[in-house]
């Protein structure tokens, strides 16, 4: 996405830069929730996780429930982060997570359990990679898409 001024520069995210520790913390909570979805087969829990993703993706990262929890309960006990990361790639990954969680919820709730399992498992793998290793799969996809867009322009 280019800047509205027509300069061709990437548009800045509406969210301020994020504390990467908060992003990983949120991914850890997401990992736990999605693992519980797989163990329980609960479409309603998958739908709740889809809502969590939707808030971050569409309302902005400052409204992401796990991020709010981190900012209120964890961040005050830590020193300032050594670095910050742009919010746009994280919002993109929240959008991808929303899509997978929503498909998972629909699968479970409609009786298409295999669809629910597969979609939830994909979201779980992505969340686990971020929580355990700091590798944000959605952020990497965002970067690839941005480079492809720039090459086409």
TrEMBL record:
It holds the Pfam family DUF4395. InterPro entries: DUF4395. This is Membrane protein. The chain crosses the membrane at residues 26-45, 95-115, 121-145. It comes from the Bacteria. Keywords: Membrane, Transmembrane, Transmembrane helix. Residues 19-147 form the DUF4395 domain. It comes from Pseudonocardia halophobica.
């Amino acid at each position: 996405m280019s800047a509205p001024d027509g300069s061709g520069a990437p548009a800045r995210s509406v969210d301020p830069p994020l504390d990467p520790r908060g992003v990983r913390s949120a991914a850890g909570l997401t990992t736990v929730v999605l693992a519980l979805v797989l163990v329980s087969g609960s479409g309603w829990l998958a739908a709740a996780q889809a809502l969590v993703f939707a808030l971050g993706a569409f309302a902005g990262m400052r409204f992401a429930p796990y991020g709010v929890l981190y900012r209120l309960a964890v961040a005050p006990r830590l020193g300032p982060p050594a670095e910050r990361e742009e919010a746009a790639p994280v919002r993109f990954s929240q959008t991808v997570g929303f899509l997978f969680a929503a498909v998972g919820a629909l699968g479970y709730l409609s009786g298409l359990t295999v669809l629910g399992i597969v979609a939830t498992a994909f979201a779980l793998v992505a969340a686990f990679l971020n929580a355990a290793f700091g590798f944000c799969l959605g952020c990497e996809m965002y970067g690839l898409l941005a480079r492809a867009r720039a090459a086409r322009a």
